[in-house]
Design goal:
It contains nine helices and 14 strands. By secondary structure, it is α/β, with parallel strands linked by helices. A ten-stranded mixed sheet has the order 5-4-1-8-9-10-11-12-13-14, with helices on both faces. It has a four-stranded mixed sheet with strand order 3-2-6-7. Strand 6 and strand 7 form a beta hairpin. The chain binds adenosine-5'-diphosphate (ADP). The site of adenosine-5'-diphosphate (ADP) has 20 residues, from helix 7 and helix 8. Adenosine-5'-diphosphate binds next to helix 7 and helix 8.
C-alpha cells in the first residue's frame, strides 16, 4: 500500500509583480498579483497526493481567511484536510513575495501557526505510513518527536533538510534518507558529512543539472550503487517548488516500493513539470503527465549508475 504521511508547513503565498523592489519608506503600485498555496510541507503533500499516494498532511493553520483559502485548495485537489491542527491565536503562515520582471525577488515569511505545530501531531504523523516526509519549516523539536516515534521497520523516514538550519544535523542519524540541494549540502558540511550519519543515503538535487543518490555503502543491492538522474529538458518559467515536487513524488514512489533509479526518474519529472508554470504547486502534475514526460526522453538520459 502506498501510504505517505507529510509533516510540515503550510502557507498562503501572496506574490506581487513589481517594476522594482520598493525603497525603505516608499509605496509603489504592483503591476500584478498572484495568490497561491505554498509552504514546503503543503507543496510536498500535494505532490505526493498528485502522484497517486494515499497522503495524510499533518500541519497547522490559524482561524482566518487564509486558512479558508488553503482548505479550499485542498478540497479542490481532494487532499484530506482532516489532519490540519487549528491554532486559536496565531495566524495562518503567509509568504509575502515581491518579484521583478528580471526575476529578482524579496520575500518576508510570517511563520504564524507553523511555529506551533504540536509534538502530538508529529507523533500521529509518525504512525501508519510506509513513508514519512518532513522538512525544516516547522520547529525542530516537532521533527525530532516525529522521528523518535517512527518505527524504522515499518516506515521509511525522509527529511528534506530545507531550509538549512543549525541543529538539524543532530537529527540525521534518525533519518533513512536526507534530501538536500547544493546550498543546503554545503551548509551541513558536504554530502559525505551527511552520509556519515543517515541510515540509507543522501539525495543531492542539482536544479536543471539533475539529482544524485548517494547510498550508505554495504546495504542491500538496490540501494548500493550511486545513481545520477539527469534533469528533464523543459521550458522552465518558474523554478519555485521544483524541489518540493521532487520530494513529494519521490516519497510517493518509494511508498509503492519503487527502486531508487525509478523513484529518481519520477521525482525529476515531477520537479520539471512544476517549473513549467507559475507558483509552487502545479495542477498539471499527475502520474499521466509524468508518464508522458518520461516517454519523451531518450534512453541515454535515463538514470545511470555512477562508476
Ligand atoms: P530546490 O528547489 O530545493 O533548490 P532543485 O532546484 O535542485 O531543488 O530542483 C529539484 C529537482 O527538480 C532537480 O533535481 C531537477 O530534477 C528538477 N528541476 C529543477 N529545476 C529544473 C529545471 N529548470 N528543468 C528541469 N528540471 C528541473
Amino acid at each position: 500500500m502506498a501510504h505517505v504521511n507529510v509533516l510540515g508547513s503550510i502557507n498562503l503565498d501572496l506574490a506581487l509583480t513589481v517594476d522594482r523592489i520598493p525603497q525603505l519608506g516608499e509605496t509603489i503600485l504592483a503591476t500584478g498579483g498572484f495568490q497561491g498555496p505554498g509552504g514546503k510541507g503543503f507543496n510536498q503533500a500535494m505532490a505526493a497526493h498528485r502522484c497517486g499516494a494515499d497522503t495524510q498532511f499533518h500541519a497547522r493553520v490559524g482561524r482566518d481567511a487564509a486558512a479558508h483559502t488553503l482548505r479550499l485548495a485542498m478540497d479542490r485537489a481532494a487532499l484530506d484536510a482532516r489532519f490540519l491542527e487549528e491554532d486559536q491565536q496565531a495566524a495562518t503562515g503567509t509568504a509575502h513575495i515581491f518579484v521583478t520582471a528580471d526575476s529578482d525577488n524579496a520575500i518576508v515569511v510570517n511563520q504564524g501557526a507553523n511555529a506551533n505545530l504540536s509534538q502530538a501531531g508529529a507523533i500521529a504523523a509518525a504512525t501508519g505510513a510506509n513513508v514519512l516526509l518532513m522538512q525544516l519549516e516547522i520547529p525542530l523539536p516537532t521533527v525530532r518527536a516525529a522521528l523518535a516515534a517512527t518505527d524504522p521497520a515499518k516506515t521509511l523516514s525522509l527529511l528534506n533538510a530545507a531550509p538549512a538550519v543549525t541543529g538539524a544535523q543532530e537529527l540525521f542519524d534518525q533519518c533513512d534518507i536526507v534530501i538536500v540541494n547544493e546550498t543546503e549540502a554545503a551548509f551541513f558540511g558536504g554530502v559525505d558529512r551527511i552520509l556519515a550519519k543517515v541510515r540509507r543515503g543522501v539525495i543531492l538535487t542539482l536544479g536543471s543539472a539533475g539529482a544524485t543518490w548517494y547510498p550508505v555503502k554495504g546495504l542491500d543491492a538496490d540501494s548500493g550503487e550511486e545513481v545520477f538522474c539527469p534533469a528533464f529538458k523543459v521550458n522552465a518559467v518558474d523554478t519555485t517548488g521544483a524541489g518540493d515536487a521532487f520530494c513529494g513524488a519521490l516519497a510517493a514512489e518509494l511508498s509503492r516500493g519503487a527502486t531508487m533509479p525509478e523513484a529518481l526518474e519520477v521525482a525529476s519529472a515531477a520537479g520539471a513539470i512544476t517549473t513549467m508554470s507559475q507558483g509552487a504547486q502545479s495542477s498539471a502534475l499527475s502520474l499521466e503527465t509524468i508518464g508522458e514526460l518520461k516517454a519523451s526522453r531518450a534512453e541515454v538520459n535515463q538514470p545511470q549508475v555512477v562508476v
